[in-house]
Design a protein that fits this description.
By secondary structure, the chain is an alpha/beta fold. The chain contains 12 helices and 9 strands. Helix 1 packs across helix 12. The protein is globular, with a radius of gyration of 19 Å. The protein binds phosphoric acid mono(formamide)ester (CP) and norvaline.
């Protein structure tokens, strides 16, 4: 898809001042605006054309969990847009411990122009966002990872040119990444099937939310059924951040859900493999698949930068 570099969204942006906590705040049209803007911003970046619409603006990045991609892509993204990002570690901001989430949000909003938060409890994030009168972006909570899903679908669209009807199979834990993928697919017409072991499916509330936005994902306990004919095979770690004590037990439960060469062979001939990273080779995916020709995981990681720059620009201008 060749983006129209002159086709700059109007200012103020239609998303000006909004939050992005789940992607469920957006319409299908707004989702497509974000993805189009991400492609335009990526092309500008690749062409080395400076684009600094957020000059003099500051983003606070509140981290209660570790990160590589989210921290670096948000910080670099703000810099490239002409603004500045401030990293606040778990030692500095202890959401809900040193002060209430709403006091944290109200105070930060007096200093800065937008807040990105990575935390555990999604309710804390909602409370903080409700009190902060600047845009708040979810950089991952226990239940959602919307920025990841933007990059995921950007990657799929780059590969196949369209999302409408694209068959995506997510195999593994019905976690935050699966939830956001389900919401993003509902908004874009991509067809998602989630295969998971009993007791580890997506939350019912998310299933219903996706349904209200377009379509709920198909659910199965059979990874082969999910992957057969799919053009995208996606997996994530079996134990997310905060579930470290369950990791050993989960290895046994999820073993039949490993994405290996045999499973990939059931997918469409031109199927690609995605993973939000970090990955555990030999657990949820074999080295042969993640390091193989069908893997697009590093393009997907790069697209975090472009998709988030588009999101920040649209929410902050
Ligand atoms: N995919 C992702 O969010 O990676 P980080 O945890 O490294 O930010
Ligand atoms: N589900 C994973 C995603 C990491 C980017 C976690 O929450 O740890």
């Amino acid at each position: 898809m060749i983006p129209d570099l002159q086709n700059v969204p109007p200012a103020p942006s239609p998303l000006s001042g909004r939050d992005c906590l789940t992607l469920g705040e957006f319409t299908a049209g707004e989702m497509s605006l974000i993805l189009d803007e991400a492609v335009r911003i990526k092309t500008l970046q690749k062409s080395r054309i400076p684009y600094r619409p957020l000059r003099g603006r500051t983003l606070a990045m509140v981290f209660q969990k570790p990160s590589n991609r989210t921290r670096v892509s948000f910080e670099v993204g703000m810099y490239q847009l002409g603004g500045h990002a401030l990293h606040l570690s778990p030692e500095e901001i202890q959401i809900g411990k040193r002060e209430t989430p709403s006091d944290t949000g109200r105070v930060l909003a007096r200093y800065i122009d937008a807040i990105m938060v990575r935390t555990f409890d999604h309710g804390d994030l909602e409370e903080l966002a409700g009190a902060a009168d600047v845009p708040v972006v979810n950089g991952l909570s226990d239940t959602h990872h919307p920025c990841q899903a933007l990059a995921d679908l950007m990657t799929v669209r780059e590969e196949f040119g369209t999302l409408e009807g694209a068959k995506i199979a997510y195999v593994g834990d019905g976690n935050n990444v699966a939830h956001s993928l389900a919401i993003a697919c509902a908004l874009t017409g991509a067809e998602l099937t989630i295969a998971y072991p009993e007791g580890h499916g997506p939350e019912g509330e998310i299933f219903d939310l996706a349904g209200s936005l377009g379509a709920s994902p198909r659910l199965t306990e059979d990874p082969g059924e999910a992957v057969r004919g799919a053009r995208v095979v996606y997996t994530d770690v079996w134990a997310s951040m905060g579930q470290e004590t369950e990791a050993e037990e989960r290895k046994e439960t999820f073993a039949p859900y490993q994405v290996d060469e045999g499973l990939m062979d059931l997918a469409a001939e031109d199927a690609i493999f995605l993973h939000c990273l970090p990955a555990h080779r030999g657990e949820e995916v074999t080295a042969g698949v993640i390091d193989g020709l069908r893997s697009r995981v590093f393009d997907q990681a790069e697209n975090r930068l472009h998709a988030q720059k588009a999101l920040l620009y649209l929410l902050m201008s």
